[in-house]
Design a protein that fits this description.
This protein is an all-alpha fold. The protein is built from four helices and no strands. The protein has one domain.
């Protein structure tokens, strides 16, 4: 049966291989921190790596779907099924939009392509 943590002694001993302890000690020294803090940093980094892996998977899936959609559009254009339409992009002057929207350089690019 595990012991209850003692609130007066918030630290514990962890058994790890000597070479692992040396690596951890070296990393802590290189990062100017303690071994305990280094463990916390490594745990956070691992969580971030897991999140990044999920994001990469989702991005790959999105990229694959986008390629399929583009291929389908090109196929439809080849048989005359999709025509380009002129889209009117209103001027932003005088509209109530935030500065970051009004001053966005991509709006000029979009306006030229429309």
């Amino acid at each position: 049966m595990p012991r209850k943590p003692n609130p007066l002694r918030p630290y514990t001993t962890v058994r790890i291989r000597r070479e692992t302890a040396e690596k951890l000690r070296r990393m802590a020294r290189e990062n100017d921190t303690t071994m305990g803090s280094m463990v916390e940093i490594l745990i956070r980094e691992r969580r971030l790596e897991e999140q990044l892996a999920k994001i990469e998977t989702a991005l790959r899936r999105q990229e694959m779907l986008l390629k399929r959609l583009l291929q389908a559009v090109e196929e439809l254009r080849a048989v005359g099924g999709v025509a380009r339409r002129e889209i009117e992009v209103p001027e932003l002057e005088g509209l109530e939009v935030p500065d970051f929207v009004r001053e966005n350089p991509w709006l000029a690019v979009i306006r030229e392509r429309a």
